[in-house]
Amino acid sequence: MIFKPGDIVKVNRHKAYTPENLMILPIEEDTYKLYPKIDISTYPSCNDFKGKYKNFQNEKFLIIGKKGRPLSFSIKEEWELYDIYYVFYCNQIFECFSHCLEKIEYCN
Description:
Blueprint: E1 8-11, E2 27-28, E3 31-34, E4 37-38, E5 49-50, E6 54-56, E7 60-68, E8 84-89, E9 92-97, E10 101-103
Antiparallel strand pairs: 1-7, 1-10, 2-3, 3-6, 4-5, 7-8, 8-9
């Protein structure tokens, strides 16, 4: 899914792994971790999530921009699930793969 700045999203912790079985969301029991940086030059490797993480459960986030896609994946549309977005929560910015993000639709 493609997101734009201003979208409100939530994280689906049940999508912690991609169809190729690559981990894109570190999880622990009933929480998941978001990090301030995902290294797009090395993903997928064993040390791609960087910085001080924060645990979350059911929070909502604001999309503030798109970082890009790991360099090991082509620009082709079929790999958009590996696109990384900047998400904002309580004056902090984290990075998250699009595969585990879901847009929240609000009706007026």
